[in-house]
Every structure is written in structure tokens, then in C-alpha cells.
Design a protein that fits this description.
Length: 81
Amino acid sequence: MLLQLSDATKVVGIKQSKKVIRDGAAKSVFIAKDAEKRVTGPIYELCQSMDVAVNEVDTMQELGSAVGIAVGAAVVTVVND
């Protein structure tokens, strides 16, 4: 599942993800389970209202590593091609 993130067109972070999801350009969203719920809660709600698939990842560090950054990531959104 995380392997697809290395080659996919994606955005990392809450603000960028919200914009892509609202614009209808999100294919799927990856959310770290250990991220703060006050941060990720609105993303879950937005994904549900926009009918975007959500995938959960155990840790922010794992998600950050999957997209090639040295820090953790709470949210990564795969953009439609």
C-alpha cells in the first residue's frame, strides 16, 4: 500500500491535502494513526463528504519515510493523474 506513494503524484500535509480534496482532485488519502485527532479529524470528515478513500498508516514517521521526507507526516494525499 505504501509502495505506491513513492511514484505517485502527491501532496504532503494538512493544508495542501485539504485543498486537493476540496478541489475534487484527490484519489486517496493516507493518515497516520498517531497524529493528533484534532488535526486529522477534519480530514476524515472531508474525505467522507467528498467520497475519497482513506488509508490508515501506523505512524507519522512511517508515512513520512514512505514519501521520502526525513520527518513524520500526518497526512499524504495522492492526486488524480
